[in-house]
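Let us practice reading a record.
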Amino acid sequence: MLIKKIVCEVDAANAEAFSKAQSQWGALSHVAGFVKQAGGWRTSADRPLTAEIISVWEDREVYEAFMENEHDSIFEENEQKAVIHSIEVTLYEEDESFIHDLLHSPAIRYEPEWRVLRA
């Protein structure tokens, strides 16, 4: 499985707009090879705020097809780019136990509306 870890810094004034945009990633549920996504705010008192999102894909090939064909239209439509101060993306090829640990980190206050499951 391929895991994508996205870490975004967001100014406090844009936290609500970022959260609203993040909740609009539901289109992922219909993308071939997508498995699930979850995320939330780190519980530390970072300024700017730090959001962490984990998405899980069947393999790198389907993920790369998504990035090439669908990612940009979703990202541009929800206008999330305008409220992100910085973004860092890391890709991992790992097993289920690694995914479970990432998706259940006590350092993250998970936002239910950011969760996306495969349709």
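A brief commentary: The chain has one domain: 2-117.
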